[in-house]
Amino acid sequence: MAGAAKRRVALAGTGHRGAGTWGKELVANCAEWVELVGLCDANALRLARAREAIGTAAPAFTDLREMLDNTRPDTLVVATRDDTHADIVVAALEAGVDVVVEKPMATTAEGCRRILAAELSSGRRVDVGFNYRFSPTAEKIKELLLSDAIGEVASVDFHWFLDVKHGADYFRRWHAKAEHSGSLFVHKATHHFDLLNWCLGSEPDEVFARAALHHYGSRGPFRGVRCKTCPHSGECPHYFDVGKDPWLDMLYEAPSAEDGYFRDACVFREEIDIPDTMSASIRFENGVQATWSLNTFMPIEGYHLAFNGARGRLEIRQYERQPWHSGDADEILLIRNFGRAERFRVKHRAGGHFGGDPAMQRRLFAAAEPDPLGQRAGSMAGALSVLTGVAAKESARTGLPVKVKPLLQ
Ligand SMILES: NC(=O)c1ccc[n+]([C@@H]2O[C@H](COP(=O)([O-])OP(=O)(O)OC[C@H]3O[C@@H](n4cnc5c(N)ncnc54)[C@H](O)[C@@H]3O)[C@@H](O)[C@H]2O)c1
Question: 117 and 255: one domain?
């Protein structure tokens, strides 16, 4: 739409994801449609550094309401710690502002319900940043399922592997406390559960789950406070030198004096209260059964996903770091019952999450961008994936299956 006014976008949360994806990259990818009008973060030094790194003249605030009042944005992007999302989203909606909120939309059922109610009463719109839907491989899977390539889907096998590098990162930071992240059943699996909902075109009905802590936290052989000052740095397999990453060092090291938020907190600290090994069986309203697992201290990084249908199986092995092969593409196998297999090579695209981040931003902000695969995700998608995780946590705690939809009431 030539000559259309740019959307006035403000950003809450200028950590790694905010300053990078929703700061620098948004400004670079969507300059045609977006004007960054304000930045907000509770940590004043991180905020100042992020503002400089983004290279924006937009004013910076440590108070959200002050930013909303002063900058009058059309859209607020929320990239703060997970447990703060619900309050910030509701405040923005009540101020008449549309919201793009990072996943997970909230960490609790109550947070989801508050957001759904505020969206309804405000008449504004909530989008959830489900960038995984926008990866080229996810798009190809969705296209194949929509084309009825394997007939009616009966079951799904979905196993996600975080390696000792990436997996450990969740145990170094706030994610390791359930009150901040909802545990990885919510923080991480919200992506996976959303992919299942979206690919299957259905909604979750019931969840049965198991969880355990095997490797991190109190299971570790020794512990310190943080890697930088740790007496075990020479022997610890998870030793992480934040000083070797100029971006993280700039955003977190000196600013940690303000809030005590270290990027290199000990992965074996006693306070860790989330599991590192999780599995779940999920039944969907359309009768599909999915088995899902998440492991966080693996020698490989990626996922193994298969849809089993009436006429065949769609199988995807997406491995970022593993010993079998390297490359800039994923392979999808369409294996027909009693028939031949067809191989699709899906090339990664440029940009974060194999091109998912810039594609999602374009879909959110470019004028009149079509959405044939229904990739744009609203608040109900955000809620259902969070609630699947909430139900899984409850099931793992009680040993009983838990219904998902009643959590909405
Ligand atoms: N979609 C993805 O693939 C993806 C990837 C990474 C992170 N994320 C999400 O993005 C969000 C941010 O992740 P991160 O790694 O940058 O986290 P982070 O904790 O490093 O950064 C969050 C920032 O928010 C600030 N903050 C916290 N509470 C605040 C409040 N109430 N008001 C204002 N500022 C506040 C913190 O000071 C910090 O600077 C999280 O919700 C995370 O789940 C999504």
Answer: no
